[in-house]
Amino acid sequence: MAEQSSDALGTVEQALGALLEDVSPLESETLPLAQAGGRVLAGDQMARLDVPAFDNSAMDGYALRAADAGQWLPVSQRVAAGSAPEPLEPGTCARLFTGAPVPSGADCVVMQERVEREGERARFPAELTAGDSIRRRGRDVASGSVLLAAGTWLDAAALGHLAGQGVVEVEVRRRPRVALLSTGDEVIDPGTPLGPGQLYNTNRPMLTRLLESFGAEVGRCVSVPDDFDETRAILGEVAFDADVVISTGGVSVGEEDHVKHALESLGRLDLWRLAIRPGKPLALGRLPARHGDTRFIGLPGNPVSSFVGAWLFLRPLMGALSGCPTLDALPAITATADFATRTGPRSHYMRAALAFTPEGPVATAFADQNSGVLSSCVGADVLVVVPANTAVAKGDAVTCLWIKGG
Ligand SMILES: Nc1nc2c(c(=O)[nH]1)N[C@H]1C(S)=C(S)[C@@H](COP(=O)(O)OP(=O)(O)OC[C@H]3O[C@@H](n4cnc5c(N)ncnc54)[C@H](O)[C@@H]3O)O[C@H]1N2
Ligand code: MOO
């Protein structure tokens, strides 16, 4: 792990190094396929069937030999999807439908719109090629091949692919169990009218949704008062059977910010404060738990800082715990900036909309980039990464990290 000096601000790379050090994927469990969406495959899934399992027609039409192009041919059989055809008699054609098995002896299919039909005979176009409109056995999947590799996120298409093999149950990683703490006496739950100086807890539903979209299960949500002893007691208690403890707020330098000190007194602080905006006072460490250490991430309380921190740090951590490499790094896109800005000593992760224009992607940063302005995250497509001490002019190329889908 890279060292951080006592007063220097850490980098995103240092934070990821500290966070992901020694992480191994959680154990696996078996689930019915219908419940496996959004889970991560624990091992390679081998194909046991060819898909398709037989040569079949891509069209409603007729099967014949390409050598009989341009002929009138008698219709010698009718093959519906789900039936077994007879071998095709020479000099004849078979009426068949999309998905129906192609009779042996036929080497092409012609869609019915190109065929002239008269009673029990049909005439075919003069130009036909063997293989036309036939979906060959094993074209999609060859039995014995790796259908889906270990670590595959089971999205809609992957579930369909598994079902195509007749899979009923699948071995997936257990979801990372997260305890989510909200610090701050002023932060209350929706459902009660606001008192003076109070505000509603926006971080909790936002982070719960993001964590779920990263494959985690938010087991416990606890509100933590601004009190050192209570903060320490709650941290110790929730860490016991969580894979990850996440808190928001209370990590800055005020005397009401108890999280960092509670972490230090109970476990270990690995890194505190990053040279990023938003999200500077991030704290990373470990807490003692039932099975060794639990990872701790203290996100800053400002909602935008929590939101950005979740994409930069919680996502790769959930990926590492569930053995899913596609969650490691956010997809990067180069776009043209539709704005100008200048950074100081911290790199800036600006929330922006991305438009795909004929001239290429264009990033429009939301007007108010303050870390308390959550409207700058609503509908954001990307985080534009502006490195420290950099000027961006309108029209410059900028690197954008894709954050849709939370
Ligand atoms: N003297 C200094 N003050 C601050 C510094 C600094 O370096 N020196 N850093 C600033 C930065 S940058 C940030 S970011 C914040 C983060 O502070 P904390 O993580 O300690 O967060 P809090 O003070 O508890 O809260 C900040 C802000 O966010 C609101 N909040 C907190 N939790 C929630 C929640 N669950 N839902 C909605 N809003 C929440 C809270 O009410 C505050 O307004 O510190 C700066 N200060
Ligand atoms: O680092 Mo703070 O998150 O900018 O407001």
Automatic annotation (TrEMBL):
Its cofactor is Mg(2+). It is an enzyme of class 2 (transferase). PROSITE patterns: MOCF_BIOSYNTHESIS_2 (PS01079). Its EC number is 2.10.1.1. The keyword Cell inner membrane does not apply. It catalyses: adenylyl-molybdopterin + molybdate = Mo-molybdopterin + AMP + H(+). NCBIfam families: Glp_gephyrin (NF045515), molyb_syn (TIGR00177). It comes from the Bacteria. This is Molybdopterin molybdenumtransferase. Pfam families: MoCF_biosynth, MoeA_C, MoeA_N. Belongs to the MoeA family. SUPFAM superfamilies: MoeA C-terminal domain-like, MoeA N-terminal region -like, Molybdenum cofactor biosynthesis proteins. Keywords: Magnesium, Metal-binding, Molybdenum, Molybdenum cofactor biosynthesis, Transferase. The keyword Magnesium applies.
